[in-house]
Amino acid sequence: MQFFLHSDTRIRIVNGELEFECTPERFAELETEYPGLPEGGNARYWTPEQAYFEGDVVYDGHECGVYCERVAAYTQYPVIYADVQLSKSSICACDALDSIQFTATLQATPIDYDWFVRLTHESSGDVDRILMQFQGGACSQTYTFLAGNPLGTWFLDESKFDVVEFGGQLYQVRLVSPVQFVAYRNL
What we know:
Elements: E1 2-6, E2 11-15, E3 18-22, H1 24-30, E4 43-46, E5 51-54, H2 65-69, H3 71-74, E6 79-86, E7 90-92, E8 100-106, E9 113-121, E10 125-134, E11 138-143, E12 152-156, E13 164-166, E14 169-175, E15 180-184
Parallel strand pairs: 6-14, 7-15
Antiparallel strand pairs: 1-2, 1-4, 2-3, 4-5, 6-8, 8-11, 9-10, 9-12, 12-15, 13-14
């Protein structure tokens, strides 16, 4: 399936299982020849079968399939590596005082950045989020287990990391090594 949508606030492009979304301003930086929306056009819809503008404007014939073919290129950003270390590999869910210290550095990137990271559970998916507050490319945060969260193995899934902006450039964050811990209870 190929699909291209340009609305007032976003552009969404689908090519099979690949998807890309950004602001119209960001897309204009990626595709300088893209004509945008015409006067009176509220949205551009395009699929291989149908193309039209919302808002009583005659379609300009612009072929958006080329943008669908470039989705993989749009999602390729330079990589920043995050070295995340845990103070221990397990946490007792029965002990409200038990905690794990997350220490992280963004290699060769001394940025100040508030980064929301999803903690993923082995069977329940994204259940918890933590705020990692980087100062000069480093942070150290204490994690305590939230009552009601499932027991089992928790990990950081780098495929779910948000893109980070630094100096006007977008970066993809990857882990230096896998990060996981086990939440358990005492009998």
